[in-house]
Amino acid sequence: MGAGKLRLMRIEIVRGDITRVSADAIVNAANESLAGGGGVDGAIHLAAGPKLAQAGRKLVPCEVGDAKATPAFDLSPQIKWVIHTVGPRWSGGGANEAEQLASCYRRSLEVAGELGASTIAFPTISTGIFGYPLDQACEIAITALRAIPTDVETVLLMAFDDRNFEALSRALES
Is 17 a catalytic residue? Predict the structure, then answer.
């Protein structure tokens, strides 16, 4: 972190499309191959173009809980980087899923800081096809983000629908 100064990071909830947000970096809820998939991962790959998968292939493997960055390619000019993180698949909560999910947020924020990003946007990691319970995932996200010292100024938590928006809002207020 720069010159011993710790800024107070702002966390905001934004309803919308993560591929169109105004942020320096966006987080991709990726799979281990970083080659694209469904949900948020597929939407980001579609918007960024085929160079994103090519860049991702050079970084594999990306383990569960880790994060790696690529350029944003054809995404909005405001977005400079895509930070790929691999969330845990929900298997009932007894397989260290909470720590793995928290690690996704920590590592992504660390990578954003290393890149010099002042704004980063996150989806709700692992809550789609990976099946993590939404309310639990949102609480883990907020707790992890609040615990990390960073030079990143603003975290945008992206909600693509009312259900995600409400779950993120509840977690942020608690």
Answer: no
Q: What is the pLDDT along the chain (174 residues), one digit of tens a residue?
A: 444 445 578 999 999 999 999 999 999 999 888 888 888 999 999 999 999 999 999 998 899 999 999 999 999 889 999 999 999 999 999 999 999 999 999 999 999 999 999 999 999 999 998 999 999 999 999 999 999 889 999 999 999 999 999 999 999 998
pTM above 0.90, yes or no: yes
Using the structure block, give the residue that is written with the tokens 């085929």: 50
CB 112 within 8 Å of CB 152: yes
Question: Which is the catalytic residue, given 41, 66, 74, 135?
Answer: 41
What is the set of domains in the chain, with CATH numbers? 9-173 (3.40.220.10)
Name the nearest CA neighbour of 59 among 67, 51, 49: 67
